[in-house]
# Entry
Amino acid sequence: MRVLAWRAGLLALLLLGWEVGARQLNPLLYVPPSAVLPALGRILGLEAWPEFPEHLALTVREILLAYLLAVSTGLGLGFLLGLRARLGAVYEPILAALYAVPSVVWYPSLMLFFGLGPSSKVAFGFLLGFFPVVLAVLAGIRQVDRHLLTVAASMGARPRELFVKVVLPAMSATLISGLRAGLALTVVGVIVGEVLGAKAGLGYLINYAYGLLRTPEYVALVVITLALVMAIDGLAAAVEARSRRWSA
# Structure
């Protein structure tokens, strides 16, 4: 309760500073929280954009599809390279080098190849979410204590039992952290892709409102996006906490 009280007090202080500071600046560019709340009501009440639910649903679908592709591909390739040490030694430096490249440089090529529709946003979200997952799998497999594998094998454990009862629990913390990081980057990739070039979605609405200097709606859309990201991250944090209890 004390932590929640401190958080509430800090939030109230920030909102008060925002309100006072914004009132002293250009109202076309800086809006106080008191102006954002009515704009938020207009958006959620479908007055500003009657098609807002469709834009929100499109963004959520793009995130889910991109993350599903990132997880399935990342887990498959990660376990393939991790369980085959020679393949991992060859290809892991290549993956690490590609991951180090600023991801935004890939988006123009993706947009040219997939167009302005949802496909380029899914591809960009997949690209950002894939690398944390596959690298987390590789790191998790490497941190498994080999003595545990030796002891389990000496007690008659089969390869499948070794994988399920020894490898997965030992690497679960690293794996879940990688999955959570991949989810966060997938969300970033999809929304940034919509901002950079799209015909629909939350990012498109943010860019549209900003371009027309509809600043209250712009800030309200950012708040909605923040709420969506926090909800997704909160769900991922709950899954991560549960997995840590399972692996303990």
Q: What stands out?
A: The radius of gyration is 22 Å. The mean pLDDT is 84. The domain at 36-247 is CATH 1.10.3720.10 (MetI-like fold). Residues 159-196 form the longest helix (38 residues).
